[in-house]
Amino acid sequence: MEQRYDAVTLVMRDGFSITEIAAKFNVSRQTIYRWLAKYEEGGLEALADESHRPLHVPHPMDGVIEVRVLDLRRRHHLWGPKRIQFELKKAGVDPPPSHMAIYRALLRAGLIVKGERKKVLKTFKRWERGRPMELWQMDVVGSIFTTDGTEAKILTGIDDHSRFMVCHGVMARATARPVCEHFVAALERWGVPEEILTDGKVFTNRFGLTPTEVLFDRIRRDNGINHLLTAPFSPTTTGKVERFHRTLRQEFLTARVFSSLEVAQRELDVWITTYNTERPHQSLKMATPADRFYAARDAVRTPPLDLRALEDRSGDDWVARTISVNGIISVSNQVFSCGKHRSGHLVDVHVLDTLLQVWDGNELLKTVPRTTKGEIRKKKAEPHRMRIE
């Protein structure tokens, strides 16, 4: 206001030209003429800042629609503007308000808080496979609690192209046996993917001291599945399944305690069905995972499963041994160590012509070259067996 008054004074009182004053204040000549006209009409007060609010809004949100927007947000506090816009369009509102109009309505009502946008690293790149069943991302997530205080785990598997959940198995512990049971169940239901992307010790033995093969790797190798491994401390590589874990915690696990693992599995099955078939995804242009997964169903290959890794261990080439207090077992007059920390464990030993394979449940502990050909004496203890229902 002071600047405008100085410009007007220099023209009217001191006789400077419009061009000179425009150059001095770095504005256009038309601006100087507008300031002069305002001053002549209303005096000094007319040079004050004016409101930038438009005189007319061509497409204001109808009051009835705004009430529906606020009601949807109150009933579904995790829904954002784009989801609310989608639900209004689905309910027959034509045309629906823009997601920015919905955002402003929620902001006015105090239902959302304006904050800074999360910065995205310049090196971060989004990627997606071109069709379903080309790649599965798998991981294990915790934070599922039962009334007895147990924290259970969930094996999660997501199709990279469609975000369709192919695996969601609840288990007491994320060890080889339950993980592989849920993995095999997913293969039997949906088919065999071309590749699997994982991290974690239960999926691979790449960080082990000995070059052995875990049961998960054996099953995927027998079925021709390529195994991709994430680099250490790189959670964005499996970003889709990690993002699903966030949704799982927010919409299903928050403040919930289950009476048993069976109840948790039943309720999770119902929620996953809704997630796959009804919940729209912004990354899929508001389509559901099932829409995209089944759109290219012909691309899914379903060869017969090879489950030799889960074979019966009661044959003549299998023996059971209990690890002694010093970690030693003896097979065919050959003595070797399995580790003192496994003292008392009942293990199965697969006796091959040149090798001895030691299994603890369905985890391959070690492979030992066979150096003796003595008689194989079976113990009374029954070997471990894995049942796939």
Overview of this protein structure:
By secondary structure, this protein is an alpha/beta fold. It folds into 4 domains: about 1-45, Arc Repressor Mutant, subunit A (Orthogonal Bundle); about 65-110; about 135-300, 2-Layer Sandwich (Nucleotidyltransferase, domain 5), CATH 3.30.420.10; about 310-370, no CATH class. Helix content is about 35%, strand content about 20%. It is built from 11 helices and 12 strands. The strands form 3 sheets. Strands 1, 2, 3, 4, 5 and 6 form a 6-stranded mixed β-sheet that branches. A 4-stranded antiparallel β-sheet has the order 7-10-11-12, with no helix packed on it. It has a two-stranded antiparallel sheet with strand order 8-9. Strand 4 (about 195-200), helix 8 and strand 5 form a beta-alpha-beta unit. Helix 1 crosses helix 3. The longest helix has 17 residues, at about 260-275. The radius of gyration is 34 Å and the shape is elongated.
List keywords for this structure.
single chain, 389 residues, alpha/beta, Arc Repressor Mutant, subunit A, Nucleotidyltransferase, domain 5, six-stranded mixed beta sheet, four-stranded antiparallel beta sheet, 11 helices, 18% strand, elongated, disordered C terminus
Number of strands: 12
Task: Note the overall shape.
Answer: elongated
CATH architecture heading of the largest domain: 2-Layer Sandwich
Describe the largest sheet.
6 strands, mixed
What number of structural domains do the residues give? 4
Low-confidence runs? 380-389
Tell me the distance between the termini. Answer: 82 Å
Question: Any idea what the radius of gyration is?
Answer: 34 Å
- Total number of helices: 11
Please write the string of helix (H) and strand (E) elements. Answer: HHHHHHEEEHEHEHEHHEEEEEE
